[in-house]
Amino acid sequence: MRLSMDEIVNAICIHMAERKQVRPTDVLVELCWDEENGFTAEVTIQGRLQYLVEANMLEAIERYMFSEYNRRVYRDQIHLDVEDEMWADIHD
Prior knowledge:
This protein has 92 residues and is an alpha+beta fold. The protein contains 2 helices and 6 strands.
């Protein structure tokens, strides 16, 4: 299974909204990748900027997979990749 960039953003929005007790629409996410830091996300909630590392992103995807697809997946089953856009491959 493959999650699109939009689904990764949705996963992070839902995850951070639950953690910060705001609506998912109040969360802005920008996905990033560079050779030095790997996969990261810039999250803005109520004017405050927070950076998520890959482990945080994987946690959000794990929770998203369970809540949206009723599938329990673990971090070693999720592989993030990027070309023109970022995606996540979910392996069984």
